[in-house]
Amino acid sequence: MDIEIINTDKQEVGRRELDSSLFQAKVRGDLLHTCVVAHLASIRRGTSSVKDRSMVRGSGKKLWAQKGTGNARVGAGKKSPLWRGGGVVFGPTPRDYTQKVNKKVKRAALTSALSMKASNGAILLLDKLELESVSSKNLASLLRNIGIERKALIIVDQEDTNLSLSARNIPWAKVQRIDSLNVYDIMNHNNIVFTTSSLEKVEERFAL
User: How many CA atoms lie within 13 A of 124 on its CB side?
Assistant: First the structure.
């Protein structure tokens, strides 16, 4: 499979062969699901917390005598979950939601995601992508100029401050470095934009 290389004016300036092991692999839906679920779980904060009866402030003194009052017997005082303001039974506590995913599974899922996007014609290859200054307006105009008006993931091989800050204020555009590339972001965007240099680095890192 080959793909055209375009400039920011959407003019073809060349063509390039895509690595078949990375962009023409078998799509594994089960692995895509595993990695997406694991990614969403890993970004959960897990800070929900309530007080159980041992954490509630107050006395544990018996509220009334065991017998003779006509009331039902009580034992733990106002800390009991039976009383308003008492502890919570089996409530949420801080926890880590991270799920372990093996490296081979991650790589196979990433390959599946890229192959799916390639087969759908959702991958664009630019000769270069540079901004002279921080400008969300200029970046949005550039993306629309090359035919992108829906969610786009721009993959770069090194930190580009102008590009990152410009994309930060565009709801449908995101800049991602290769070292943080993941299945969820690829699947969650309609278009994947590579530069020639970032595509080379991706193939070097992930291709067989």
Answer: 25
Question: Rounded to an integer, what is the distance from CA 108 to the centroid of its chain?
Answer: 17
Backbone angles phi, psi at 48, to 5 degrees: -60, 135
From the CA atom positions of the chain, what is the Rg in Å?
Answer: 27
| pLDDT confidence of residue 143 | 93
Q: Are residues 145 and 181 in the same domain?
A: yes
Q: Do residues 115 and 181 share a domain?
A: yes
Per-residue model confidence as pLDDT tens digits over 140-193: 999 999 988 889 999 998 888 999 999 999 999 999 999 899 999 999 999 999
108 in the same domain as 87: no
Q: Of 57, 81, 96, which residue constitutes the final position of a domain?
A: 96
For 91-109, letters b (16+ CB in 10 Å) and e give: eeeeeeeeeebeeebbbbb
CATH number of the domain within which 122 lies: 3.40.1370.10
Tell me the β-bridge partners of 75.
none
pTM score of the predicted model? 0.82
- Do 98 and 39 meet the contact criterion of CB atoms below 8 Å apart? no
Residues 33 and 136 in one domain: yes
